[in-house]
Design brief:
Layout (H helix, E strand, L loop, with lengths): L2 E5 L17 H17 L5 H5 L8 H13 L3 E2 L8 E2 L1 H8 L9 H14 L2 H16 L2 E7 L6 E10 L2 E8 L4 E7 L6 H15 L4 H13 L7 H11 L10 E5 L13 H11 L2 H11 L7 E5 L11 E9 L5 E9 L4 H19 L1
Parallel strand pairs: 1-9
Antiparallel strand pairs: 2-3, 4-8, 4-11, 5-6, 6-7, 9-10, 10-11
């Protein structure tokens, strides 16, 4: 499974991974055993807990020595002198790098693809991905479709709703759909709307929207425009913002209630603050943009998110970025505690991302 792993101890340039001296195979296996034990119990892990595992063939004294080395190297820390040790973000970082890709059953892959296919539009698929990730991981699912910087017209639809109201729909080549209802000062029949729609689709499909606006303005200002019925009616819709397409991302978040079960050791006030932060669309996009940097469908794991929010220091983000046709960038992530099932979350993110990408292409 391709992945990029970063922890709060990693302060190097984006996309790089600085772990210091490489762990020996023996020490890495002991460290992974400690991390797994901590994920299962949530309690400090003592040398006796590890020495009782027969696979390593090491004496308790050897285990204590290795744990002391790992502590010195920043992989473990001891909350109290008499207590066992806890893994640090650096330990989780090393642990995640050893996780093999989990094979997903064909039935589950088929279920993901069927659900996305049935959803149809990009907007509905983004919402569907959020729901699927929440179900598969029991974490907080964050999904977003980021529009292309330069929006290109795919097609326009115009539908009369009566009472001089018009539904204006613009579909861009990144597969996003924008629509809004406007009120005109005069009535336009549906056949007139169809003529305007056909004119725009015939002359401006494939144009960057800003360039289409400029060309429309030029044509409307030309002397011949005064004698062209379609253009004279088009100016009414242009004045109402026919091609005014906002670059707002489509964002979904599902499973915020699962935060209560994460054992984050937060006060009620800080937990409430975290809830409110995740409800902000702008904050979710900022979180995904900040921690998902690798293009091309590579799973990324970010451990320790206090730089984004003070209540997220004990949390991890597992996500993937998928580049779809037309310039659309889709981001899928699961937010959870450090003590999460990383293999399940990484597999879910990878397969949901792949399914979305295959249907978008």
């Amino acid at each position: 499974m391709a992945r990029s792993v970063h922890s709060k101890e990693d302060r190097s340039r984006p996309g790089s991974l600085t772990q210091g001296p490489r762990l020996s195979v023996r020490n890495q296996r002991i460290l992974c055993s400690i991390v797994r034990a901590y994920i299962e119990s949530g309690q400090p892990v003592a040398s006796g807990d590890v020495s009782r595992q027969s696979w390593h063939g090491l004496s308790p004294a050897s285990i204590r020595g290795i744990m002391a080395e790992l502590d010195h190297e920043g992989y473990l820390h001891q909350p109290h002198t008499s207590a066992g040790r806890l893994p640090t973000g650096k330990a989780f970082q090393a642990f995640v790098g050893t996780i093999p890709e989990r094979r997903v059953q064909k039935l589950e892959v088929g279920r993901i693809r069927d659900a996305l296919h049935e959803a149809g539009s990009v907007e509905r698929r983004i919402a569907c991905c959020s729901h699927l990730l929440m179900q598969m991981t029991q974490g907080v699912a964050l999904t977003a479709a980021i529009p292309a910087e330069k929006q290109t017209i795919e097609q326009v639809q115009l539908v009369g709703l009566g009472d001089r109201r018009i539904l204006m729909v613009v579909v861009t080549q990144d597969r996003l759909v924008r629509n809004h209802v406007v009120q005109l000062d005069e009535t336009l029949r549906q056949d007139e709307l169809d003529s305007i729609r056909n004119y725009i689709n015939a002359h401006f499909a494939g144009w960057v929207i800003e360039e289409a606006r400029l060309e429309l303005r030029r044509r409307l200002e030309a002397e011949s425009a005064a004698y062209d019925g379609i253009l004279r009616r088009l100016v009414l819709l242009q004045a109402k913002g026919l091609l005014d397409v906002e670059l707002e991302p489509e964002v979904r978040m599902e499973g915020a209630a699962n935060l209560v079960d994460f054992e984050l050791r937060l006060t009620k006030e800080r937990l409430k603050d975290l809830f409110l932060a995740l409800e902000e669309k702008k904050r979710v996009v900022q979180l995904l943009d900040s921690f998902l940097e690798q293009p091309g469908g590579e799973v990324e794991v970010r451990i320790g998110l206090e730089a984004e929010h003070p209540s997220m220091g004990e949390m991890a983000l597992i996500g993937i970025q998928v580049d779809a046709p037309g310039g659309l960038s889709a981001k899928f992530a699961v937010l959870g505690p450090m003590r999460m099932d990383y293999q399940r979350a990484m597999s879910a993110v990878l397969h949901v991302g792949r399914a979305f990408g295959s249907l978008a292409s």
